[in-house]
Design a protein that fits this description.
single chain, 163 residues, Rossmann fold, 3-stranded antiparallel β-sheet, 3 strands, 46% helix
Length: 163
């Protein structure tokens, strides 16, 4: 819950769940949501159990692993000058996408003294084209878009390897 939901009160939630389980079995999501709501303060327009259920879903579906694998596969399947567009809906996903794009769009410096020029070697796989947030109008029309971040990167042209 802490790692995948970024829930600050994750330890308190875990303790509350453990306490309840000593007396009864938790059999429904409503029971679990009520336990969490007893620990986490209600935020405006957001159920107190939202982050916890998000964490459970991410863990069960291995969403972060799937995202990382998909990003790595994009290197091989995206054509030169093709664009990679990823919409993330929470900070954990966005961090993974951001770090992937940064890792593959930064110029690498070769050690001094090598008989090769930096310009002779393709050094980046992507060009970071930036990020975009939902407009105020979009958020008014679609409340789920409020946390969406679109990141775009363009695959660089492949250079021929020297023989």
């Amino acid at each position: 819950i802490y790692e995948f939901g970024e829930e600050k009160k994750s330890r308190h939630i875990a303790s509350a769940i453990k306490r309840v389980q000593q007396d009864q079995t938790i059999t429904t999501t409503l029971q679990l949501a009520n336990i969490i709501a007893g620990v986490v303060r209600t935020k405006k327009n957001k159920h107190p159990a939202t982050r916890s259920f998000q964490a459970i879903r991410i863990f069960i579906n291995q969403e972060l692993k799937q995202l990382a694998e998909t990003l790595e596969q994009s290197i091989d399947v995206l054509a030169p000058e093709g664009r990679l567009s990823i919409i993330s809906f929470h900070s954990i996903e966005d961090r993974i996408v951001k770090q992937f794009i940064q890792k593959h769009s930064k110029q690498k410096q070769l050690p001094k003294g090598l008989p090769v020029m930096n310009s002779d070697i393709q050094q980046t796989l992507f060009k970071d084209l930036g990020k975009q947030f939902a407009s105020k109008t979009e958020v008014q029309n679609n409340k789920r878009s409020r946390s969406a971040i679109l990141r775009v990167a363009q695959r660089t042209a492949l250079k021929e390897r020297a023989c």
